[in-house]
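Ticket #4471: structure export looks truncated?
Reporter: QA, pipeline team
Priority: medium

Steps to reproduce: submit the single chain below to the structure queue and open the exported record.
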Amino acid sequence: MSTTKRIAKNFIWLLGGNIASGGLLFLIYVFLARVLGVWAFGLLSFAQAVTSYLVLLVDSGLSLFGMNKIAANKSIAGHLALNIFAVRLSIALLLYLASALLVTFLPIAANMKLLFLLAFIFIFYRALNADWVFQGLEQMEFITVGKLAYTLLAGGLALLLVKGPADLLGAVAIISLAGVLVSGLMLIFLFRRVLTVDFGWLAPAQWANYFLLALPLGASLAMIQVCNNLDTVMLGFMDRPEMVGYYNAAYKIFFIGLGIFCTWLSTAMPVASARFQTDQEAAHRFLQKFLRLTLILIVPLVLLTFLAAPLIIRLFFGSQYDQAVLGLRILCWALLPMSLGSTYGVLILIPSGHYNLFLYSSLAGATVNLVFNLLLIPAFSFYGAASATLLAELAALAVVYRFSRSVMTLEFLPAVGKPLVYTLLAGLAWFLARSWLTVHHWLVSQSLAGLAFVSVYLAMLFVWDKTFILGFAKELKSK
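Actual output as written to the record:
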């Protein structure tokens, strides 16, 4: 099977799974946002944002480290997976006990303490999650199965049990416990049906070494997490729960675009890791094509989201979240530097072994995010938080681009030129459709304008990039 065909197969599995599971998860949060109300939904978002930092400590970069090693040498998968799961579960147990003890002594209401204790159970979902092993083995279909199982279970329980703001604690418990159950079942499947493991392979003497080797990646992921949700945490401390609710409504939409890109990135990571070990020229050709395809997807997505933000927010969250529109319009621009920075960092610096350089670029983004959140949130609330995220991603891109050039240079301008022109013309079609259409209902007029945008972009892409697209399609059909 050709590399392109293998990537396409994995991407289709992940994309299909993420559309289904991610769509369901998004609808779950839409449902919770509407049923719980802005105040309770803000508390839920705040608790999850705090929990996400504990999740990072549980992982400490071990999943990314393990995936990279398995992709480069699949024969070590069983031994490595068994020991990394043992390390992560040990960290999770110690971390939950310490966090529970800390929360017990915090001067907050009893129901808030219980809220955090239930949210913190989610760290065991991460400790037991086997997606990184399936990704390294390039068996993405099992990742899809696990995600679908989780969203169906969590969604079904939420629909049955969450009826109003009084059910906030139940909603948090459902999200945490459903994840732990599904991860545990997928881990059993991994060790019984996919990998051959022997518990005699447990090597506690190597655990510290694994942890130290993965630590720069773990620190990098922590810095990325700072860029992604420190603003939610700071909003929770510096502003009202309603502002957190508005911001997270916008962020849930932004996260859809980010999820599409991460799906695409996940299919490329094992290939890039293997190519850097064997053939630098082949790695360069692959990454240049990846960059071009990424920009074809991301550039129009950013502008369309900006234009259609009022439609998107009201359609999913209702008029009570109209204040989130400007937040989404700011956030959507962060998707472009985020996707470029991930390409240069995750697909160049990590596979080539430059973990520390990747850490420095992530640290730059986190520092900028922290500084501008402190400066902008007091004056502009969640609009300032969204702006801080955009500035942080631009800073991280500048640093990672400079570092990656010492390893491999990708030609950016030729890759972005055509998608940018096509997107601008599609944007013009959107404005013309809005001006000429006599339909007065905002939902219909915005939907038709969005259809004009997509139609014009796809038509130009096919006419002027037909050779590239047909060549890619031909490779997919090759054996």
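Status: closed, not a bug. The export was complete when the record was re-opened. Leaving a note from the reviewer for reference: The two ends are 5 Å apart (CA to CA).
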